[in-house]
Amino acid sequence: MNKMSNSLKTGEHWLASPTTRVLAALIIVFVLGLVFNADGAFFKWGTHRDMLRAVSVYGILACGMTLVIISGGIDLSVGSILALTAVCFSLFTIHYQTAVIVAVVLCLMISSLCGIMSGAIIARFKIQPFISTLAMMVFARGLAKWVSGGQKISTAVQQADGTYQYVEVPGVFNFINSKLLGDNITVVTVIFLICIVISYIILTKLRYGRYLYAIGGNEEAARLSGVPIMKSKLLAYGLSGLFCGVAGICQAAQELQGDPEAGISYELSAIAMVVIGGTSLQGGRGNMWLTLIGVLTIGYLEKILSINAIGEDKRLMLTGAIIIAAVLLQKTKK
Amino acid sequence: MTPQNFNNNKPLLRMCGIGKQFTSTLVLDDVQFELRAGEVHILAGENGAGKSTLMKILAGVYTAYTGQIELDGTPARFNSIHDAASAGIAIIHQELSLVPTMTVDENIFLGRELSKGPWLTKKQMQQKAKTLLAGVGLDIAVSKKVGDYSLGIQQMVEICKALAFESKIIVMDEPTSALTDVEVQRLFAIIDKLKKEGRGIVYITHKMEEIYRIADRITVLRDGRYIGTAPAAQLGQTELIKWMVGRELSSQFPRHQANPRQTVLKVRDFSVPDQAGKPFPVVDKVSFELRAGEILGVAGLGGSGNSELLNGLFGTYGSRVSGTITLQDKAYYPTGPGEGIKAGLALLTNDRKATGLILGMNIVENTTLAALKKYAPFGWLRPAREFESARQKGQSVHLKAASLTMPVDALSGGNQQKVAIAKWVDTNPAILLLDEPTRGVDVGAKHEIYELMNQWTAQGLAIMLISSEMPELLAMSDRIIVMHRGKITAEFTADDATQEKILRAAMGNTDEPYEQGSSHH
Questions:
Q1: Cβ–Cβ of A221/B360 closer than 8 Å?
Q2: What is the C-alpha to C-alpha distance for residues B7 and B9, in angstroms, rounded to an integer?
Q3: Which residue of B has its CA nearest to A201?
Q4: pLDDT at residue A11 is higher than 60
Q5: Residues 193-222 of A with CB under 8 A from B
Q6: Which residue has the higher pLDDT, A97 or A3?
Q7: If pLDDT is split at 50, 70 and 90, which confidence band does A250 have?
Q8: Does ipTM exceed 0.85?
């Protein structure tokens, strides 16, 4: 793995490299799954496929979150923007029967615009990302409720006479929910993996990716080196918004409706995944593979607990404990 | 300057056979150090020689080490910073350890507040803080926040913090690196007082003149090994440098013959308003010219506005400046760092950790940051090109590093500075604005930076230089302008300039009023 060869070059022992430590958490969880395999359920590929499907929407949010956190910020608005896009996408495709490509482009534009607005407020008025995106979280939620009239936008469409009539599920919903490669992987998972690759390319191959690391590492030094702070932040938050849009579309397809209440507390799950991956909340460090490992760690944990029929109460408590354990595992001993 | 009554044979502190290992590298090997009551003992050596490590062992920061420490003749071993502090050891760090948002008295008693039961005795603490501050000749409001005061005063507060706990051993790690001359004088007066009270002072500095001003004895470390200890009066400067670098430097300041060419920068009535919103400008209608191939020194005490002048020209304050500037025969108006770089300016800031480098990024990434567009056609990075260029630039500034992919915070101060310099060389500037280019840099690296400055001017670059080390400024500048409260008060050629003349102008006393360019004051 790329990070590992890097640490070899710097003379650091590979066992001490961050990737190894993060991977250790995933492996421990995976081994737990092998032991508590719920009568062999864990050995079936279907279990893993379902885990990947369940974790994909969160994972897409975590992609944008990683970009923002590396730049030294945070984005609390992802859950609300997800709901807003889910509502808009359902309205376009179910009620107005807009062409799919138009609906997708419009929704992604709306969600990106929300992100760009947060970014602009942060960069232009020097307002803390926590506050700015908190405001966007509340605003976008309100917007989602206003657009939807507080109703779930489902295939039960109210007619002129007040009665409800079911319309056909849009083809795009069915497509996103379908499985590929002989039922072995779902389309959402493929979308999630594409998001990971796009974020990876931005962070490692593009000039603006380098700028995000520089700004997260030391904003003033970056500014004095001529790094365009404003553009870089707009890009980070705009991309986070864009990924929220993608996640929102997937969410709508999976639920077969646009729920203005969807995505509540998803921002915290996304942050948890990034943090378990070892990306520092202080910014300047981290990468996409770490986030992928973080997403899989939480995904497997939830799956293993659920196939062993452990209730949600205990599942939440255990997840909390695991977050701390994973972060402790990464702490380098001084 | 001989310690009188306290010069007995029993030392306050003795460290013997000290060794310290970080993972696989030995950073201290069989080092000894001795401190007597009432002496100022200079701990000298290049960056990376092990001075700070030795002091961190003394302060209880590092608890795993070999060897012995004796305090007043009895063996001691500190397991925590608190342990060492209770034993009477205080360290005043290069980076101050004050909390800027807390008041002066809260800072002085931080962690060891005076109290009656659970209640803090605020009045008593304020009273005691006032007494302590008066003892160092300072009369300031103790209920104001520390962050509201200048670095010089903050340093004094830090010293008072040490005094509040009756520390017998006070370690000062480059205490003057951010102080003005006046503040330095005050610090030295306090050190003298502390000596007379029988305290022992360990003083770490890179400034030659300071060493001979205050030292009683000098101990030199090199590459983690003990080189020797000698009374300051018996260890000459040449000999001391030889101890530190292991060789003789041909000349301390090797400025070559300057060959000034055409004017590259013309500045008329340039002003920078106070960034905190105070009504008077920090740079006030300054006019001067800079020619290719010359080094223009900009002298001034703290608050003179010389650093703000360089920052203002570069674009640090955006367009919140005023004046008429011609840069390489084109009109130039600062709007931001990016535009300044495009116009051919480069600013080496005076604090590489806070504003110069991205410490967590590696050498290559730091070197190419300011000119990243070169390495990213259509936005796509070319790592191989970056690496090759960083290797060349690193070589040209004599960067010493195990690997170019190691993070810069793992480098010594001198090498960090060289990375910051390499970054600006990479932008191919016409004018280099150097704000304290040798601050916190060891003797060997300083020499290399001087040689680089010679090389650049020979290539036709123009340099503006700020240095709080007067001998350095005098020796390296071809011309010196002196600033006082935002205005230029004098200009000297290299031959004319003396330390006294500059200081007089910097304090605002000029024999005849200086007229800059065509503007009158």
A1: no
A2: 7
A3: B380
A4: no
A5: 204-211, 213-214, 217-218, 220-222
A6: A97
A7: very high
A8: no
Q: Which 340-369 residues of chain B touch chain A by CB within 8 A?
A: 340-342, 347, 349, 354-361, 365, 369
Would you say domain B13-245 falls under CATH 3.40.50.300? yes
pLDDT tier, A334 (very low <50, low <70, confident <90, very high otherwise): very low
Q: Does A8 reach chain B within 8 Å, measured CB to CB? A: no
DSSP code of residue B54:
H
Binary contact (B380, A206; C-beta < 8 A): yes
Do A211 and B372 count as a contact with CB atoms less than 8 A apart?
Answer: yes
| Domain boundaries, given as residue ranges, for chain B | 13-245, 249-344+429-438+460-516, 350-426
> Distance between CA atoms of A295 and A270, rounded to whole angstroms?
8
Residue B338 has its nearest CB partner, among A205, A208, A226, at: A226
For chain B, 521 residues long, the average pLDDT of each consecutive 10-residue run is 48 90 76 93 81 88 89 88 86 76 87 79 87 82 85 82 84 79 84 89 84 91 89 86 69 75 93 81 93 93 86 93 93 94 94 91 94 90 93 90 87 89 94 91 86 92 89 90 90 86 75 51 39
B249-344+429-438+460-516 matches B13-245 in CATH topology: yes
> Which CATH homologous superfamily contains domain B249-344+429-438+460-516?
P-loop containing nucleotide triphosphate hydrolases (3.40.50.300)
**B200/B72 Cα distance (integer angstroms):** 12
Owner of token pair 């795993």: B64
Residues 6+ apart with CB under 8 A from B427: A226, B341, B346, B370, B371
Verify whether the Cβ–Cβ distance A226 to B340 is below 8 Å. yes
Show residues of chain A in contact with B359, CB under 8 Å. 217-218
Please name which of B500, B456, B39, B498 lies closest in space to residue B230, comparing C-alpha atoms: B39
What is the architecture of the domain spanning A15-330? Orthogonal Bundle (1.10)
Cβ count near B139 (within 10 Å): 7
Nearest by CB: A225 against B379, B405, B423? B423
Q: Which residue of B has its CA nearest to A208?
A: B379
